[in-house]
Amino acid sequence: MEIERKFLFQEGDFDYTSYPYHEIEQGYLSTDPVVRIRKQDDEYYLTYKGKGSMVREEYDLPLKKDSYLHLLEKADGNIIRKKRYLIPIYDDLTVELDIFEGKLSGLCLAEVEFKNTDDANDFIKPKWLGKDVTYDHEYHNSYLSTLERRPNV
Questions:
Q1: Would you call 28 a catalytic residue per the annotation?
Q2: CATH of 2-144, one of 2.40.320.10, 4.10.520.10, 3.30.43.10, 3.40.1390.10
């Protein structure tokens, strides 16, 4: 089960560049249901995500590089490329800040994952995080993969 909140972020509101990051490339084999393949640094995954916004099922299965590359050719829409910065905040929480590249360049989204819905609902965001877009499907990566350009933020 994945429990997360999602926020917009404006570059310049916080200096994230000194934090560790992952290089991510991902494509979608299906957006309903969501079936995603992802390369994160040198690891590869196939992920199924259930319906929902803040709370939804999520299952990751490891892939070999050859399988990932084979499936990548079958992905629909745009291949998403981004750097995900890992920024620790209070209560052992981490902001995963995604800085998108390519067609989505200029889009910056932040996610925070929680252990339970009470913690998610009680979360007070740091001042440098922007508007809460948790319930806006237009900021799901699966939807973003279908766009010709980044959404206006």
A1: yes
A2: 2.40.320.10
Predicted confidence (pLDDT) per residue in 76-86, tens digit? 999 999 999 99
Give dist(CA 33, CA 51) in Å, integer: 7
Say how far apart CA 64 and CA 45 lie, in whole Å: 8
Q: In what order do the strands lie in the sheet with 2-8?
A: 55-56, 2-8, 108-113, 94-100, 76-88, 21-31, 34-40, 43-49, 58-63
Q: Count of residues for the chain?
A: 153
Q: Of residues 21, 28, 68, 85, which has the active-site annotation?
A: 28
Mean pLDDT of the chain: 95
